[in-house]
Amino acid sequence: MVIIPWLLEHTLFCYLDFQLKELYHIARFEKATRYYSICIEKDLLGDWTINVCNGRIKSRLGQNRILAFADYNEAFEHFCLMAKQRKQRKYQLENYKTDDALFLQFLLVMSCTKLPIL
Predict the structure, then answer these.
(1) How far is CA 21 from the centre of its chain?
(2) Which domains does the chain have, with CATH numbers?
(3) What is the C-alpha to C-alpha distance for residues 55 and 11, in angstroms, rounded to an integer?
(4) Are 40 and 66 in contact (CB under 8 A)?
(5) What is the percent of the chain where pLDDT is above 70?
(6) Element (H, E) at 80
(7) Which of 12, 36, 81, 106 places its Cα 20 to 30 Å from the Cα of 67?
(8) pLDDT class for 101, splitting at 50, 70, 90?
(9) Strand order in the sheet with 62-69
């Protein structure tokens, strides 16, 4: 007799799509007086770009750069590297948006679980 876990029995489980998706991601980091925004998106030519905006909070002055990448995986890897650098420089993640609801749920679960200290 095969025992099926309750999660797999649910009729909506078959609609979950675990394939890699090429979706946009937006992250905004802030310090006391500074902000840093990273946005990964597809441009009109089909290339994946990262739009980086940074500057002072409550000021219209700031910098804007666009980095172009040939494929999504390379762009997302660079996006994650830039986010890691912001955390190392003591920026706080203020906002994060994406099209992938499953990815957001995964981030929520990972942020709520305590990892064992070795």
Answers:
(1) 13
(2) 21-112 (2.20.140)
(3) 48
(4) no
(5) 75
(6) helix 72-88
(7) 106
(8) confident
(9) 62-69, 48-56, 34-42, 25-30, 92-98
d(CA 33, CA 13): 45
Please tell me the distance from the alpha carbon of residue 101 to that of residue 97, in angstroms, as a whole number: 10
pLDDT tens string 3-50: 555 555 555 556 666 666 678 889 999 999 999 999 999 989 888 999
- Virtual torsion, Cα 30, 97, 16, 47, nearest 10 deg: -110
List the Cα angle 15/26/88 in 5-degree steps: 115
Return the structure tokens found at 58: 């409550």
- How much is the pTM? 0.71
